[in-house]
Amino acid sequence: MSWHAADRTSYSQRVNDVAGLATLLGDRLVTHPDVLRQHGTDESYHAPQPPDAVAYPQTIDEIAVIVSECARSATPIIPFGAGTSLEGHVAASRGGVCIDLSRMNRVLEVRPDDMDADVQPGVTKNQLNAALRDHGLFFPVDPGSDATIGGMAATRASGTTTVRYGTIRENVLSMRVVLADGRIIRPSSRARKSAAGYDLTHLFIGSEGTLGIIGELTVRVVGVPEAIAAARCMFPSVEAAVRSVMETIQIGIPVTRIELLDEVQIDAVNRYSGRDYPVAPTLFYEFHGSERGVAENAESASGIAADNGGSSFDWATGQKEGAKLWDARHDAYYAALAVRPGSRGFATDVCVPISRLAECIVATQEDLRASGLVAPIVGHVGDGNFHLIFCVSEDAGELARVEALNDRLVRRALAMGGTCTGEHGVGYGKARYMREEHGDAMDVMAAIKRALDPAGILNPGKILYPFRPNK
Question: How far apart, in whole angstroms, are the C-alpha atoms of residue 379 and residue 84?
Answer without folding.
Answer: 19
